[in-house]
Automatic annotation (TrEMBL):
Stretches for region Disordered: 212-236
Organism this protein belongs to: Aquariibacter albus
Bias kind Basic and acidic residues: ranges: 212-222
Domain of life of the source: Bacteria
Protein's name according to its UniProt entry: Uracil-DNA glycosylase
Length: 236
C-alpha cells in the first residue's frame, strides 16, 4: 500500500447520499478541479505522515460539510489548511473551493491541540467520506452500518500500512470502532454539542499537557494558548 493507491481506492467508493470529496464536485462551492485538488491534498498529507513515522491516529466520526468535505483532510477546515505544512513537513495543500474560507469549530479545537502535543498523529475518521441527509448535501448525518462496510477494508489497510499502534478517539462512535484495530485506545469527548471543555481536558490528560483555564465567555480561545482562534466567517 502507498498513498497513491490508497487515495485511488478511496475515490472509487460511490454511495447514495454520500459525498466523496475525492471524486465528486459540489455545484455550489467547488472549483472545477476540486476533486483532483482534494486527492492531491490527501496524497501529500499521507506521505508526510508516513515519512514522519507517526504511530498514533486521532479518529473522528466522518467528514463534515464545513470541514473535510471541502479540504479532503479529516478534522481540518479551510482556516487551518495553510497550517498543515507547518506541522506535517513536506505536505503541499491547496483550496478546492471558491469564496471565503469556511471555519469549523471541531477543526479549530483539533488544531489548537495539535500545536501543543508531542508528535504528529494521523487525522482520520471512522467513515472517511461525507454522509448527508437525502436531498440536502450541506447537512451532516451519521453513517449507516452498510456504508461503513464499504470503507472498512480501506481503514484496515491504512492502519496496517502506517503501523498505527495507538488511537485517540474523538467521541464514542470512534471508540466503538477503534477497538477492533488497536488495544491502546484513549477516548476524549467530541468538542461539539457542549463538549469543548471535556475535550480539552481529555487531550491534556492523554498527553500530559498542562491545561490552562479558558474564560467561559470567550468561546473562541484555544485550549492551551491564551491567544484567540480564528474568527468564523459565514459560508458563501
Amino acid at each position: 500500500m502507498n498513498a497513491s493507491a490508497f487515495v485511488r481506492a478511496l475515490a472509487a467508493v460511490q454511495l447514495e447520499d454520500v459525498f466523496n470529496p475525492y471524486a465528486d464536485t459540489c455545484g455550489l462551492f467547488d472549483r472545477a478541479d476540486a476533486a483532483s485538488t482534494r486527492r492531491s491534498n490527501l496524497r501529500s498529507y499521507l506521505r508526510s505522515v508516513e515519512g514522519q513515522g507517526a504511530d498514533t491516529l486521532w479518529m473522528g466520526r466522518d467528514l463534515g460539510y464545513r470541514g473535510g468535505r471541502r479540504t479532503g483532510l479529516a478534522l481540518t477546515d479551510e482556516y487551518h489548511l495553510a497550517e498543515v505544512p507547518s506541522l506535517y513537513a513536506g505536505t503541499v495543500v491547496a483550496r478546492a473551493t471558491n469564496g471565503n474560507a469556511v471555519a469549523e469549530r471541531t477543526a479549530a479545537e483539533i488544531w489548537a491541540a495539535l500545536r501543543l502535543v508531542r508528535g504528529r498523529p494521523l487525522l482520520w475518521n471512522v467513515f472517511p467520506l461525507h454522509p448527508h441527509e437525502h436531498g440536502s448535501e450541506l447537512t451532516n448525518r451519521r453513517f449507516s452500518s452498510r456504508e461503513l462496510e464499504e470503507v472498512d477494508g480501506l481503514n484496515a489497510d491504512l492502519i496496517s500500512w502506517l503501523r498505527i499502534r495507538r488511537i485517540v478517539c474523538i467521541g464514542q462512535d470512534a471508540e466503538r470502532y477503534a477497538k477492533r484495530y488497536c488495544d491502546a485506545v484513549t477516548v476524549v469527548r467530541h468538542p461539539s454539542y457542549g463538549g469543548t471543555s471535556d475535550f480539552r481536558r481529555g487531550i491534556a490528560e492523554a498527553y500530559g499537557v498542562p491545561r490552562r483555564e479558558v474564560a467561559p465567555e470567550d468561546r473562541q480561545r484555544t485550549m492551551f494558548d491564551p491567544g484567540l482562534a480564528p474568527k468564523t466567517r459565514k459560508s458563501a
